[in-house]
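pls read this protein.

:::
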Amino acid sequence: FTEKIRRIFLDIKEQLSAAIRQAAQKAIADGVFPAGELADILLEVPPDKKFGDFATNFAMQSARVFRMNPKKIAEELVSRIEGDWLDHAEIAGPGFINFYLKGNVLYDLLRHIYEEGEACFNLPQKDTARIMVEYVSANPTGLLHVGHGRGAAVGSALVNLLRAAGYPVQSEYYINDAGNQIDNLAASVNARYLELMGKKTAFPENGYHGADIIDTAKRIVEADGEKYLSLSEEQRLAAFKEIALKEKLAQLKEDLAAFNVTFDEWFSERTLHPEAVRDACQVLKEKGKVYDKDGALWLRSTDYGDDKDRVVIRDNGVPTYLAADIAYHRNKLERGFGHLINIWGADHHGYVCRVKAALAALGYAPEQLEVLLLQMVSLYRGGELVKMSKRTGESVTLEELIEEVGTDAARYFFLMRSLDSQLDFDLDLAKSHSNENPVYYIQYAHARISSIFRQAADAGIETDGAPEFSRLVDETEIALIKKIEEYAEEIERAARERAPHRIARFAYDTAGLFHSFYNKCRIVGVEPALSGARLALVAVARNVLRHALGILGISAPEKM
């Protein structure tokens, strides 16, 4: 039945596109239009009901092909378009064609959506390559900050969106638990431990100065006191590396869970060393894609568009970060994932070409790796830019953001703009309980609908019968119906464009249409058939809002 509904969603536009194409072909056969390749048919939903249910600029796009005035093309098309679902078509402006569907088309589709319930918005499974979405993957050397928070919100919402659209997808966090950053973590904890034990020591040049490092050292002292002083520095560093890594990783998972972010897999970089890194380099050697120079091993990345070749094994025999990444991406593909989506910060822009070059050198299609780059987040409070954490004196942490504005507001504000645009996050607005706050506005719509059903139950109104949707004729009702019926297609498009912000916008617009309808049309207390139809409509609206909020990882409250 879900497949049937999906077909109904798509058939309306497909039938309309086919009717336009057939009308053009008839005009060619009649000798009115010259033969030629037809332009693409783009159908859009007009922002105003008076311009119809769908509109197209096909006549204007075809003017050069048919060598004719767009308005004349539109007239010829309208005279030949047929369909029992079409009430009428009108020509507007220089050649737009506005289509008005018969009311029964809208009502029939609404009935199917109502009967199927929220499940109809989870589209059928696609027979496509398995997708791996890797995101956040912050070094486990400190606390997550707001930049990580944006990546976490976008990544988790994208995974939810892809699943709703029917794609086979898995999420993964790549734990950078090998290399210099972990050595520096151990050295930093060691220095703080020795300071607390009254031992003079120089703080490592590349150490981590965060307050969380001091806290880790204090916990070690509280648990074991002088125990580690009797160890050699090498032994102490090895012990502190494991203690600190375990603690930081646990904190990462706790902060992400509080932000409604979980992963199907946590992948340790350590598992790549040394075998997987060595094997990947060996494959590159066999393919002639690397060479020795000055004692180091270099990838011929310039063969694939990079501005210079890159070192994969240093002259001291230690693999570079790129070497581990080559092995990791090879591992992903060998696990059966046909398409890889990585969400990285914008500062990794130059790194994309290197990894794609490595994949191509290994014999994979570089298009199998898709990298989405997140732009920066700027926090504002009282109109002033907030740069530092009050608690740590460093970047504002994700934990602090959640404490101040809550998970729901933080996630929505991170998701309401395209990930490739700079985001100005207004902390005061995110905390406000007003219609100016978009997430409050959406959640209030859901809570208001729940309140309506409580009122209906108190009034003894039955909601189990077959609704007479043809009673819904007010312009606010029609506008809400049309919006609801766009939702499945919006999921499809948002997933294809990797654009969870489209779902955030859709939820906001749907909430606005519901509020307009609610303010104009009485639901409880009107004659039974009309009340039943309106209750059914708001039930479907609630399903849409709840489903969209679910994709965004935001709660749908029953009361506010």
